[in-house]
Structures are given as structure tokens and as C-alpha cells.
């Protein structure tokens, strides 16, 4: 049951896709061919210059309808990116530089009519033949007498068959039409789906991301083949088989020029020379290069000039001109005025096309470089805007944190004057807090100057491993129980590179800060070890002291990520995670060599 429903849905979808095709094709072809003809005919008076972009936009609109029909059928087709139209006449003319618009125009003018009328009419006639054959016995009486029958046709094909001995002609017609109707009805779903599949895939191939030069080259090649063959055979008197081979070589050279310029040049030269020899002499006709040969040679030179470096276009022009000249000299035994005039005409036209193609390629290349520079400039402007925003945030962060640090420093400094009878240990604690606040405030101001690019930023030496003792003592002064094992010694510490020493200092500093924030009262173990080719840093803290509950200080979660990035930048390894007993450990290995 589900299979039958699926077949019915597929049949309806194929019908809905195929039957409107000829209507859409006729509407697009008639409107576009009218506008395109008017555009080309009036381009010299600038009316066509304004009408042609409108024609291209309309072609894209019709092509979008074709893409939408293909998507509705079930096949994905890439969207055509149409930039918004710029104001003014210049913005209108920019439409002429969009390759997708020309591809849409070629598709709607040259592909849709034969494609859609073929598939649409077959989709319309196939079920009619099926219905007509199945109901022939009902309406056959209305046919005029003597109009012929299937029996007579069968007798012409098989004269030895004795149909009259089997049954009369009317019964034979009914049986044959019934068989044909059943055959057309049985094959209707497959035929319709095949037609829809072919139509949709051709549409997707042409309107997708296919290289437009392949499309234009293929169309030009087919057109040249269809024109050159009868021209050589009927007008120039070349044998039909030889004319077909020469026409195929001429048309094939145009298609090959898209990707194989050297091969295309050789094939075109052989075709021109062979055409001249096969059609010589040709009095009263363009010779040694027929009109179709001139078109083919010009197209080959134009394609090579637009897609390849200039020297290949010049080489193609030289080879093809030389082939036509050789044909004129060999075919006439020294050349005649008409042959040399024909050669001059071909060489002049080809030279002009080569120059125009090379100029167009240069302009397109320059435009591409300009667009690339514009893109890089826009990217740099975005980066600059981001940096300015970061600097603004840094300024706001400085204003917020600096105020708090300043208040903390002032309160800690004046505490011994404002609060009488403080014991010396408490006074020392306040002095330590004030000193730490002033240091942090100075470092923040220095970082802010660096972010803002101030030239007068204070320069201070980076901390080294020798200052770890001060960091440990400062942490112990705040009440933390810190065990420090220095496995290096002063001599070994001095041999550690500055970048490694700074990374080790920051790892210990951030790890102790995390332990003080999240595990208040926990015992902290700090150890530095020298391996054969690396410095190993280990900071482990135990579980927090439950007898002294303190609200954990929230953090941004960026400290460990920064340490990991700093370590990996030096080629080392970094690990941080929970330990047994609700503790936490940070371990890093920093290469020295």
C-alpha cells in the first residue's frame, strides 16, 4: 500500500514538473529573445546599453524559477548570488560583468526551448497514447472508411503473413491498439520519471556552478559542426565524409580551447590547412579560409586570449595565420590575389580579437587584484575595530579594578592609623596587602599602556625563578601553608632560558592563586625539578579546611587555559585536574633545549 502511494506521489510530482515546462520555456524565450534583439540592435545608440542589463536580470529571474522547479522536484541546485544593483547608470552596466547572468541568458535562450518542449510534449503525449490505445474499441467506429488500418500496415511490413486467415482487420486493430495502450500505460511512470530526471539534471548542470566557458564553448562547437558540414559538402564540393571530419576538427578545436590551448591550436591549424587543400580551388568563394573557418579560428584565439597568458594567444594567432597562408600558397601553387586577400582578412580579424581578448583578460585580472586588496583592507579594518573595542574594554576594566585596588591599598595603608591597638602581626598583614595592591595596580597600568600602544609604557624586568622565594613568602604571609621544594639550585636556575623561567613562574603564581581562591586553608605543595631536557613544575593542593569555611572566590576560568597555551607554545605538556581527597594538581613539563 505504501509502495503504491509512493508511486502515485512520484507520478504526480513528475507530471507537475514536466507539463508546465513548455509554457515557462515559451514565455522566457519570447520575452528574452525580443529584449536581447532590441538590446543588440540599439546598443550603438546607447539604448541597448540600458536595455541589456534589464534583459540579463530578467534572464536570471526566469533561471531562478527553473532552479525553484528543480528543487521542488527534489534535486538540489546552488543559489545564484546576485549582488544588489548599484544606483545610477554605472551600477546598471555592472550587470554586464556578472558571468552568472550570461549563463542564465544562454540557458533560457538556447537550452530551455528544445529541452522543455521535448520532455513536456512527451509527458503530455505518452498518457494520451495509452488512453487512446485502451479505448480504441470505443471510438474506432467514428474513423472514416478507407483511412488505413494496423492490418494493412502490418501487411506492408510482413507481406507473407496471412492476417485475414486469423481474424478481420478491425479486430486486429483493436488488439494492436490495446497492446500498445497497455505497454504505454505500464511504462508511463518510468518514462515520466526518466524525462523529469533528464530535464532536472540538465538544468542543474547548466545553472549550477559549472564553468560558463565550457557551456559557451560546447554551444559554439555544436553550432559550428552543424553549419560547417553542409557548407563544405554542398557549397565547396568536399566529399560528405571528409567534410564531416573537417567540420568535427574545426568544432572540436573550439571546445578544446577551454582547457587544452596547445592541442586546440594544433587541431585548428590542421583543420584550416586540410580545409584549404580539400576545397581548392574555390573561385568566387571565401578561400582558403571559409566563413565558418574564420569564425572557428577567431573563437579559438578569443578563448585562449581570455583564459591563458598573452604569449599563448599570440602563438595561436601566428600558427593559425601560418596555416591559412600555407593553404593559400599550396592550393594555388604560389597564391592568388583573392586567396591572399582572404588570408589578410582572416589574419587582421584574428589579430584584433587577440588584442581585445588580452586586454579583457588584463582588465579582469586587475579587477580581481583590486577586489582582493579591498577584501584585505576590509579585513584589516575589522581587525582594527576589534582592537579598538578591546582597548576600550581594557580601559573600562582598568577604571573598575583600579578603583577597587586603590581603595584596598588606602585602607590597608591607613589601617594602623585608623585602628588603634593593632598587634604587630596585623600591621604587617595590612602592609603586605597594601604592597600587593600597589604592585597589581602598577602592573595593570603598564598592561593598559601596552594595549593602547603608548610609547612611554614602563619597562620592567620579567620575573625569574629567583623571585619564586618572594612569591612563596608572600603567600605564606597571607596565611597559606606552602611547602616549596627547589630541585634546581641557584646555578641550575641561572641556566634556564628566560622564556621557560617566566612560564614556570606564571604557572606557580596562577596555581597558588587558584588554591587560595578555591581551597582556602589547604596545604600547597610546590616543586621544581630538572629533568634531562626539561623543567618540571608541580603544584598540588589538598582539600579545603572545613573548620574555616570561606566563600570561594569566583574566577573567569581563563587562568588555566592561559597556562596551557603558554606551555604548548614552548613545546611542552600541561595537565591540570582533581586529585584524590578532593585536591587539585597542576603539572607542566617545559623543554629546555
Radius of gyration: 43 Å
> Which structural category do the helix and sheet elements fall into?
alpha+beta
How many β-strand runs? 5
Describe the biggest sheet?
5 strands, mixed
Assign an overall shape: elongated
> Helical element count?
19
- Mean of pLDDT: 81
**Spatial order of strands in the largest sheet:** 1-2-3-5-4
Brief rundown of the structure:
By secondary structure, the chain is of the alpha+beta class. 70% of the residues lie in helices and 6% in strands.
Explain what the structure shows.
- With 593 residues, this protein is of the alpha+beta class.
- The protein has three domains: 2-78 and 87-207, no CATH class; 223-454, no CATH class; 465-591, Histidine kinase-like ATPase, C-terminal domain (Heat Shock Protein 90).
- Helices cover 70% and strands 6% of the residues.
- It has helices spanning 2-18, 21-41, 47-73, 88-93, 99-134, 136-139, 150-157, 169-207, 212-235, 240-256, 261-279, 291-307, 310-332, 337-418, 424-452, 468-477, 489-495, 498-518, 559-569, and strands at residues 481-486, 523-530, 534-541, 573-579, 583-591.
- It has a five-stranded mixed β-sheet, covered by helices on one side.
- α5 packs antiparallel against α8.
- The longest helix has 82 residues, at 337-418.
- It is elongated and about 130 Å long.
- The protein starts with a helix and ends with a strand.
- The model has no long low-confidence stretch (mean pLDDT 81).
Amino acid at each position: 500500500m505504501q509502495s503504491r502511494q509512493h508511486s502515485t506521489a512520484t507520478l504526480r510530482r513528475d507530471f507537475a514538473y514536466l507539463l508546465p515546462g513548455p509554457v515557462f520555456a515559451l514565455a522566457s524565450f519570447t520575452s528574452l529573445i525580443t529584449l536581447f534583439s532590441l538590446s543588440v540592435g540599439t546598443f550603438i545608440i546607447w539604448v541597448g546599453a540600458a536595455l541589456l542589463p534589464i534583459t540579463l536580470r530578467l534572464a536570471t529571474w526566469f533561471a531562478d524559477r527553473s532552479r525553484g522547479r528543480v528543487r521542488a522536484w527534489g534535486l538540489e541546485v546552488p543559489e545564484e548570488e546576485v549582488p544588489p544593483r548599484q544606483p545610477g547608470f554605472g551600477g546598471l552596466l555592472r550587470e554586464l560583468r556578472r558571468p552568472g547572468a550570461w549563463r542564465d541568458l544562454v540557458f533560457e535562450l538556447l537550452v530551455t526551448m528544445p529541452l522543455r518542449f521535448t520532455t513536456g510534449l512527451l509527458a503530455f503525449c505518452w498518457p494520451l497514447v495509452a488512453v487512446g490505445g485502451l479505448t480504441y474499441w470505443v471510438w474506432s467506429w467514428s474513423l472514416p472508411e478507407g483511412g488505413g488500418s494496423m492490418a494493412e500496415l502490418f501487411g506492408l511490413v510482413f507481406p507473407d503473413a496471412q492476417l485475414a486467415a486469423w481474424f478481420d482487420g478491425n479486430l486486429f486493430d483493436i488488439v494492436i491498439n490495446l497492446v500498445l495502450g497497455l505497454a504505454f500505460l505500464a511504462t508511463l511512470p518510468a518514462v515520466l520519471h526518466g524525462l523529469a530526471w533528464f530535464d532536472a539534471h540538465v538544468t542543474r548542470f547548466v545553472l549550477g556552478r559549472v564553468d560558463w566557458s565550457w557551456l559557451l564553448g560546447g554551444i559554439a562547437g555544436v553550432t559550428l559542426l552543424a553549419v560547417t558540414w553542409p557548407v563544405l559538402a554542398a557549397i565547396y564540393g568536399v566529399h560528405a565524409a571528409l567534410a564531416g571530419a573537417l567540420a568535427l576538427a574545426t568544432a572540436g578545436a573550439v571546445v578544446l580551447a577551454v582547457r587544452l590551448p596547445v592541442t586546440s591550436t594544433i587541431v585548428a591549424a590542421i583543420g584550416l590547412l586540410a580545409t584549404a587543400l580539400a576545397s581548392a580551388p574555390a573561385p568566387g568563394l571565401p578561400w582558403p579560409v571559409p566563413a565558418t573557418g574564420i569564425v572557428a579560428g577567431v573563437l579559438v584565439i578569443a578563448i585562449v586570449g581570455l583564459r591563458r597568458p598573452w604569449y599563448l594567444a599570440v602563438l595561436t594567432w601566428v600558427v593559425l595565420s601560418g596555416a591559412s597562408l600555407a593553404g593559400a600558397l599550396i592550393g594555388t601553387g604560389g597564391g592568388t590575389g583573392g586567396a591572399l586577400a582572404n588570408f589578410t582578412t582572416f589574419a587582421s580579424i584574428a589579430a584584433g580579437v587577440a588584442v581585445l581578448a588580452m586586454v579583457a583578460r588584463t582588465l579582469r585580472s586587475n579587477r580581481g587584484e583590486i577586489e582582493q586588496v579591498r577584501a584585505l583592507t576590509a579585513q584589516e579594518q575589522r581587525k582594527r575595530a576589534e582592537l579598538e573595542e578591546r582597548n576600550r574594554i581594557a580601559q573600562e576594566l582598568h577604571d573598575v579594578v583600579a578603583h577597587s585596588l586603590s581603595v584596598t591599598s588606602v585602607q590597608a595603608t591607613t589601617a594602623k592609623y585608623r585602628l588603634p591597638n593593632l598587634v604587630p602581626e596585623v600591621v604587617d598583614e595590612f602592609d603586605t596587602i597594601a604592597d600587593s595592591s600597589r604592585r597589581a595596580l602598577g602592573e595593570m597600568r603598564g598592561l593598559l599602556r601596552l594595549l593602547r600602544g603608548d610609547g612611554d609604557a614602563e619597562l620592567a624586568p620579567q620575573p625569574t625563578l629567583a623571585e619564586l622565594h618572594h612569591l612563596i613568602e608572600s603567600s605564606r604571609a597571607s596565611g597559606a601553608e606552602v611547602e616549596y621544594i627547589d630541585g634546581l639550585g641557584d646555578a641550575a636556575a641561572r641556566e634556564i632560558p628566560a622564556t621557560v623561567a617566566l612560564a614556570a613562574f606564571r604557572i606557580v603564581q596562577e596555581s597558588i592563586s587558584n588554591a587560595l581562591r578555591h581551597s582556602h586553608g589547604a596545604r600547597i605543595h610546590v616543586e621544581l625539578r630538572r629533568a634531562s631536557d626539561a623543567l618540571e613544575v608541580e603544584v598540588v593542593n589538598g582539600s579545603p579546611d572545613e573548620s574555616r569555611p570561606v566563600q570561594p572566590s569566583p574566577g573567569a576560568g581563563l587562568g588555566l587555559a592561559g597556562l596551557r597555551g603558554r606551555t604548548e607554545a614552548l613545546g611542552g605538556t600541561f595537565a591540570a585536574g582533581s586529585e584524590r581527597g578532593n585536591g587539585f594538581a597542576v603539572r607542566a613539563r617545559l623543554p629546555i633545549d
